[in-house]
Specification:
about 120 residues; mainly alpha; two-stranded parallel sheet; 5 helices; 2 strands
Length: about 120
């Protein structure tokens, strides 16, 4: 069973294909996201990414995220979840301007269609 922190760690590592695959499995396994438990981890980056991703998934599904996500703050430095944003000016600007709100509010930046599945 895929855990939200696994997706967060893959995203933080810039592993786009792994992140997408884990996300698809996670969403199939968790039809009601409000019941996803808080990860039992100390790493603030992974915890913040987990909360942000859960809020993103819940927003896209028209659901409420787990209550614990409200208690997780933002990071002191921005993190780009797409490796190419570090070298491509246009992509970086796009991420900064249009990153989904659940990500942006905690300091994560990605393209607006990040983890959207057709």
């Amino acid at each position: 069973m895929v855990k939200i922190e696994q997706i967060a760690q893959a995203a933080l590592g810039g592993e786009s294909l792994e992140t997408r695959s884990l996300t698809q499995d996670f969403l199939r396994q968790n039809p009601d996201l409000k019941f996803v438990p808080r990860p039992d981890i100390d790493d603030l980056r992974t915890l913040a990414a987990s909360a942000s991703l859960l809020e993103l998934f819940a927003e896209r599904r028209g659901q409420k995220p787990p209550a614990w996500t409200n208690k997780i703050g933002s990071l002191p430095e921005p993190i780009f979840l797409v490796k190419a944003a570090m070298t491509m000016k246009y992509l970086r600007a796009l991420c900064q301007a249009e990153s989904p709100e659940p990500l942006r509010k905690r300091g994560f930046y990605a393209p607006p269609e990040y983890l959207v599945f057709a």
